[in-house]
DNA sequence: TCCAGGAATTTGATCGTTCAAGACCTTGGA
DNA sequence: TCCAAGGTCTTGAACGATCAAATTCCTGGA
């Protein structure tokens, strides 16, 4: 099986290399009849463009890079993985491929950008886990490298396109559900103030309560089942009339469930992220539309890469959905 | 910031392109002093080889491909994700990058191989989820394309290198643990016969029981919490003296736990895969050394890619470990 | 002093594609 | 009849690296 190049196709179709290239890249400049002939030759020979050669000439690789977390073990770790699955699908459909990398910290990640850009000519990056004071976005923006973030730029100037899930509306929906089923004293179990995502989730709960002219207490602890259980015990003990808890994660929710069971309290619980754990134990949870988010990220990237970038960056905010199970 | 090529470096160091190339690829043919001078120039300029150009000449891309499952939702889905994390790490250390792809079925996957090979000149593939009658391995082997499987070639002729976890020894360890803690009637909750992995897990349990001259019953059902619960109910009802269950997955184990609780039976349960769910609910589970497996896969691949392939394929069988928690 | 022979370095060609520019046809209006 | 203007197709050069062969530089023995 000889290697089939553009020259092979050209010979077979009786045209020049460039004409074949034109059929591939700018079909409209080639006469109908010729175009067909070339297409047949391509099909017969099973020709495929060699990306490396194309890339050398055009500087574009049709590759996008995403970071994969080193080896997170938590209940919530799977969220990014699910996003990754969606992104790989969406990229494939758009003719791109996803390349993975790991990095220990933001600076290391930036070093990796340099490496990937110069070695592999990466076309674009998708960033996840954006946070306050994130140096990555400004580094990329400063070099005009196409990128999209999954997660809005917390605090940073809003100069790039992003996709995010409306965290607040998720907890609002959760709280409203609890209100609708008769709960009147609804607490919130979240993370310490300061993380954008966590604050938003708390905010959504507070907003729903406010709209119903109700009050509720909240706690902020590091994520985890045990920390969640401890915090929930505290909350439930301090407020005997609390009958429901909205939680910022499934881990916390699981802890809350444990605490309530221990204390013999009947307490509805709603988690966040709809992880495997939630599905397994029947925990009602707020579900992020990760596949859709990935698809939208890819859409935005294509805009950037095709040069038809809108003058202003685009922001996509997706509504999460509430998955009802036994716990609420 | 001008683009730095090998020619830039050569000029700066006062040598020819080829000498720079030699410093990079075959340092021993370059005189010590020259080598140093070139290395300095490389460092000063921040030069990095352009993979596309190198690849065009050498035909090697330093890229390896792995399939990522479309978007599996189950409790057990995360196993492959964790393997993927490890592989990305190991590949990075060895100077390779991981490229992802998805495929719907084996034939589609083979089509993707063709695409990836001709378009991106992939160096190697890592296959997961090997199964009986897997057409992928023979396709790759027939074309002399380097690959390793994570999972042994069930049934197929054993002509390639692979890494696998010793499933049987995992359930053996689990069963022995139960025996050591006094259980005498230990059941097994697994999948229908025919899947290599499932059969091996059952086999490990049976072996341990046999060594202790004991008997036990087993059930085989599709993976899932509900199916597991149903099967466990059946087993426990039929055998009032069963006090422990070894399960082929955490999903089944979770179901077993549910069933036992419902029935008011005190029953030890051990799952398999040490998923997030197991950690979350305190389920004792057999843990696969996924990071190590990924590392070994990478080692085998490097052997193949560096041409120092052993004449016979290498097989690596890793022992899993038992993670003790509350349920056993 | 000269030369053989190995070590160190350089030169030209090449990988497969696309860009830029030029060549070749048609067609139609002057 | 001739030429301008498009439309269509072809030709060389270039991208940045490595291979293969050629060249220069050394060293030491005759």
UniProtKB/TrEMBL annotation, chains A, B:
InterPro entries: HTH_LacI (IPR000843), LacI/GalR-like_sensor (IPR046335), Lambda_DNA-bd_dom_sf (IPR010982), Peripla_BP_I (IPR028082). Pfam families: LacI, Peripla_BP_3. SMART domains: HTH_LACI. Gene3D superfamilies: 3.40.50.2300, lambda repressor-like DNA-binding domains (1.10.260.40). CDD domains: HTH_LacI (cd01392). Keywords: DNA-binding, Transcription, Transcription regulation. This is Alanine racemase. SUPFAM superfamilies: lambda repressor-like DNA-binding domains, Periplasmic binding protein-like I. Residues 4-58 form the HTH lacI-type domain.
């Amino acid at each position: 099986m000889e290697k089939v190049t553009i020259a092979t196709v050209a010979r077979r179709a009786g045209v020049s290399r460039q004409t074949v290239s034109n059929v591939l890249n700018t079909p409209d400049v080639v006469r109908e009849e010729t175009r067909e002939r070339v297409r047949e030759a391509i099909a017969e020979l099973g020709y495929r463009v060699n990306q490396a050669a194309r890339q050398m000439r055009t500087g574009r690789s049709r590759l996008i890079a995403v970071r994969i977390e080193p080896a997170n073990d938590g209940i919530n770790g799977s969220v990014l993985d699910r996003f990754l699955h969606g992104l790989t699908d969406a990229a494939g459909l758009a003719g791109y491929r996803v390349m993975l990398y790991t990095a220990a910290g933001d600076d290391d990640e930036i070093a990796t950008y340099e490496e990937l850009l110069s070695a592999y000519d990466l076309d674009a990056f998708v960033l996840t886990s954006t946070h306050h004071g994130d140096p990555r976005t400004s580094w990329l923006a400063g070099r005009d490298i196409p990128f999209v973030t999954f997660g809005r730029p917390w605090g940073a100037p809003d100069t790039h396109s992003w996709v995010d899930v409306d965290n607040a509306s998720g907890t609002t929906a959760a709280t409203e559900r609890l209100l609708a089923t008769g709960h009147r004293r609804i607490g919130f179990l979240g993370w310490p103030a300061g993380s954008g995502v966590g604050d938003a989730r708390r905010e959504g709960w507070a907003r729903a309560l406010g709209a119903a002219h109700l009050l509720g207490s909240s706690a902020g602890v590091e994520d985890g089942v045990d920390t969640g259980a401890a915090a929930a015990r505290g909350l439930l003990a301090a407020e005997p009339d609390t009958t429901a808890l909205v939680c910022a994660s499934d881990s916390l929710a699981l802890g809350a469930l444990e605490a309530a069971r221990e204390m013999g309290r009947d307490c509805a619980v709603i988690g966040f992220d709809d992880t495997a754990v939630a599905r397994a134990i029947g925990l009602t949870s707020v579900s992020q539309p990760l596949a859709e988010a990935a698809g939208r990220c890819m859409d935005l990237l294509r805009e950037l890469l095709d040069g038809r970038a809108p003058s202003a960056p685009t922001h996509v905010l997706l509504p999460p959905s509430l998955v009802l199970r036994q716990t609420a």
